[in-house]
Amino acid sequence: TPDREWWKEAVVYQIYPRSFNDSDGDGVGDLPGVVEKVDYLDSLGIDVVWLCPVYESPNADNGYDISDYRSIAAEFGTMADWEALLSALHDRDIRLLMDLVVNHTSDEHEWFERSRRREDGYEDYYYWREGLPDEPPNNWESFMGGSAWTYDDVREAWYLHLFDEKQPDLNWENPAVRDEVAELVNWWLEKGIDGFRVDAINYVSKVEGLPDGDPDRSPTGLEQFSHGPRIHEFLRELYERTFANYDAMTVAEMSGTTVEMAGDYLGESGDGLDTIFHFQHVELDVGPDGRWDPEGWGEWSLPELKRITSRWQGELGADGWNAVYLGNHDQPRIVSRFGDDETYREESAKLLATFLLTARGTPFVYQGEEIGATNAEFDSLDDLNDPMTIGGVEGLLADGVVDSYEEVRDLVNYTSRDHARTPMQWDDTESAGFTDGEPWLALNDDYPGINVEAARADEGSIWHHYRRLIDLRHAEDVLVYGEYDLLLPEHERLFVYTRTLDDERVLVVLDWSAEPATVEPTGVDAADAEVLIANYDDPPADPVGSEFRPYEAVVYRL
Ligand code: TEU
């Protein structure tokens, strides 16, 4: 059995503050708006809030471009508002994770301003390269489309940005940069927060000399800047100088991580990180050329999802712990992607919740998932806000891969990061109770039917299913610490697993499809099974040999 830790037993709820709740009518969610909803969070039963960035930022990437790590953006409120949120959460025994974005800063950060002017001590805070303004130093591409280099007219040199041109990459090779990062992390930990979600941290070490990348890879350069040669050294050093000295949880966002790599990052025997957001399951349905490949997207198979999930569930080792998620602010809505947002919206949203809350690892619920929020529709480029989507589409247009937005509209309506960023749907009044003003991003027009108020009024709703599952997880140690074993690995429609802790055993049966499916004998004796939770009335009493209905999800105690 793994060591007991509060963060293993916790259920985390992710808040995208811009879209959560607006208290002052400017159309942008804010910190007092979150405070107003702390009782709401408490009633759902969650233990931890991960708050996406609320720091000062010119918002080229909605706060992931930070211009001052130690201040709150005016549109979100003041430091006093933030402190009020921290105490409102702590008063209810809810902990707070902040977002740590230190692969890059904003180009409006003071460090960059000084660096581009070659001020003493700041010259090497970023990746600068000399050269002619018409020839970037290498062939690396940015995640936001186009070259990863921009020529700066002030310094008359190129700077590297793996994301937007307003997000220059910090040069972690420079010890002064690592000092700055450790200081700001400790500054926040001293304010009493409970940990960090660590943004895009797999990119902080780049191959020496910044060599060209394989031109056939998308984005080009990935193998030169992801999980680079000094990453473990940098992360271990940061851990020892910061997190190790606090009772803090860390969840590191690291695309490209396999379960084999994870051991070197996690726990005391690795770099000291607690958990990782890997990307393997959210890359299943992406085309061969990446997320904006207009060909070959949208298909994923359950056996493959099970294979990936099961490797992480079963093979992390004693020092590892999973972070379990299906959606977040960078991904489409989970019911539209992994479920069925039409005929079986209720059933499939409850099935996804059942998976999230009975898998082994700390579950992350993204705002709106608890009401089964669906993808929106973006009819033109003007309806979009996300720089990654816009950059992706503009790249395809510029390269002549497509001739018009219409040709990629279906892809955008499948995968855009904007889906998850439409405002939270609180009730059926104008603007869904999110704001008294004009929302910064259009609401999904399904809010009159899909909203928190309606869901809470209905005992059979997705919302109440989440609440009951969270209660169940809190009550049953086996759901937290129990070993995971997959049954029926090749089944096309059923995802069946057990969780086992000493003599406690739970069986989870998910018909992850729109068709009925029968559980064939698996070697598990379930004749006296007790139903702990189900998303249909009258679930099969003895699951083995029984037929499950579309998206039926049942948890049994054996
Ligand atoms: O996202 C990082 C991220 O998703 C990439 O690391 C990922 O590897 C890439 O999209 C390829 O799939 C984080 C934030 O969550 C996101 O909102 C920010 O835009 C980004 O970092 C930059 O800070």
Automatic annotation (TrEMBL):
UniProt keywords, alphabetically: Glycosidase, Hydrolase
GO biological process: carbohydrate catabolic process
Hydrolase recorded as keyword: yes
Alphabetized GO MF terms: hydrolase activity, hydrolyzing O-glycosyl compounds
Residues annotated as domain Glycosyl hydrolase family 13 catalytic: 14-421
EC number: 3.2.1.-
Signal peptide: none
Gene3D superfamilies tied to this protein: Glycosidases, Golgi alpha-mannosidase II, Oligo-1,6-glucosidase, Domain 2
Listed InterPro entries: GH (IPR017853), GH13_cat_dom (IPR006047), Glyco_hydro_b (IPR013780), O16G_dom_2 (IPR045857)
S-adenosyl-L-methionine found in the keyword field: no
Family: Belongs to the glycosyl hydrolase 13 family.
PANTHER family per the UniProt record, alphabetical: ALPHA-AMYLASE FAMILY MEMBER, OLIGO-1,6-GLUCOSIDASE 1
Name recorded for this polypeptide: Alpha-glucosidase
